[in-house]
Amino acid sequence: MDLSVTYLLNSGFIVELGRTLLVFDDFEDQQDLVGQAIRAGKHEAVYLFASHAHFDHFDAHILSYQQEAARYVFGYDIRRTKRGRMFPQEKVTYMRPYEEWEDACIKVESYDSTDIGVAFRVTDKATGKSIFHAGDFNWWDWTGETAENRKLAENAFRKQLKRLEGMQAALAFFPVDGRLGPMQDKGAREFVRVTDIGALITMHDLTESGWQPAADFFPAGRSFPVWSPQYPGEQRTFSV
Which UniProt keywords apply (predicted)? Predict the structure, then answer.
């Protein structure tokens, strides 16, 4: 089957999976791409996810979709924010790391982050296909940090990575942030080594670095499609 993905900005994406519409981390959508997808009326259920409360992942403008939304699924930290309290709480599920939520259409599993909030694995029950969205989970190895802080960042990343070993997903969204310079794909390299994914979409790169995987990026004996979107509205279709 085909899975359609539209880039919004930063870590924001629309995923059309069968009759289900998933929207991740939509903090800015000047082209009204989400509204257009919803108004097209092709989907039986619409779900809006926000991994955490950082301004570049969560914005209250998605409140405008409350009539169409089957559910808002938010990282637990959003509950404490003024923006979060604006939403109809009967339509919001807040998730802490390592929790599950499901309804008739999807199952959501949450994982921890190396920043705040959570990462999501969403499985569409009709198709059995899963999507992983990392939120701000990454190996944030910043040039110029002290050796101690860089080691703490590595330890936090590796601890969470163990919980992801063997995870299957038709498609994974993972940060490859150009601000990290030569370290920008360090986390992604480790992530694809221990998981079983069908395709990778990079995110959190407002620098528009145009990153492309080197030949040694892929695990031994494996390869899969990789997409690094650069402008809002860019779209790709993946066969899963």
Answer: Hydrolase
Question: Helices (H) and strands (E) in the chain — how many of each?
Answer: 4, 16
31-47 burial, b for 16+ CB within 10 Å, e for fewer? eebbeebbeeeebebbb
* Cα(214)–Cα(232) distance, integer angstroms: 25
- Tokens found for residue 108: 């959501």
DSSP letter (8 states) at residue 127: T
Residue labelled with tokens 């949450």 = 110
Q: State percent of the chain over pLDDT 70.
A: 100
* Separation CA 50–CA 52 (nearest Å): 6
Quickly count: other Cβ atoms within 10 Å of residue 194's Cβ: 13
pLDDT at residue 228 is higher than 80 = yes
Cα angle 199, 75, 166 (rounded to 5 degrees) comes to: 35
Domain count, the chain: 1
**184: phi then psi, degrees, rounded to nearest 5:** -65, -30
**How long a stretch of residues is the chain?**
240
Coil vs helix vs strand at 193: helix
Q: How many CB atoms lie within 10 A of CB 211?
A: 19
Percent of the chain whose predicted confidence (pLDDT) is above 90: 93
Q: Any idea what the CATH number is for the domain that residue 216 is in? A: 3.60.15.10
Q: Can you give the residue range of the structural domain that contains 148?
A: 2-239
Q: Find tokens 């492309």 and name the residue.
A: 212
Query: Which positions ≥6 away from 89 have C-beta within 8 Å?
Result: none
